[in-house]
Design goal:
Layout lengths: L6 E3 L16 E5 L4 E5 L14 H23 L4 E6 L2 E6 L5 E8 L1 E5 L7 H14 L9 E4 L3
Parallel strand pairs: 6-8
Antiparallel strand pairs: 1-2, 2-3, 4-7, 5-6
Length: 150
């Protein structure tokens, strides 16, 4: 249906190239160079805490996709949404196969609906369930993803 591209750019800057010394800092490049994000490894893996690490980007991609699916469903059902925030978190640990992986992502969406359009709590849960089933990213991974209700 569509192709999505991103570039990753890294360059050694004079340091000796050993595991303990090389810089993990790099660039994540989107939209043919129009958007550049500073990337690095997580601090636990000798990365720069000021930059986005792949694990954070993964969690953000899942949260963003869920939100966009949720908003699309609400719009199609003519349920007005005023705001949507999510403080999602992912857990990096050894998986069943003995390797480090993001084993679970907890989405914690807080949705404010337009006055007079607030669905019942069970309807909101169903909207999130449907958003999860329609999320392209969630459908692409094996990580357990849960939506934690407020």
């Amino acid at each position: 249906m569509s192709v999505h591209q991103a570039a990753v750019r890294w360059q050694r800057h004079g340091e000796v190239f050993t595991y303990d010394t090389y810089s993990r800092d790099h660039e994540l490049v989107f939209k043919a160079g129009k958007v550049v994000i500073a990337g690095s490894a997580a601090p636990e893996f000798r990365g720069n805490a000021q930059h986005i690490d792949p694990e954070e980007a993964y969690v953000a991609a899942l949260a963003s996709c869920h939100m966009l699916s949720f908003l699309a469903i609400c719009a199609r059902k003519r349920i007005g949404v005023d705001s949507y925030t999510d403080e999602a978190e992912g857990v990096l640990e050894k998986g069943d196969h003995g390797k480090l992986c993001i084993t679970q992502v907890r989405l914690k969406p807080k949705v404010r609906f337009l006055p007079g359009q607030e669905p019942a709590p069970d309807v909101v849960l169903e909207l999130h369930h449907r958003a999860h089933s329609e999320c392209f990213i969630a459908n692409s991974v094996r990580t357990e993803i849960s939506v934690v209700s407020p």
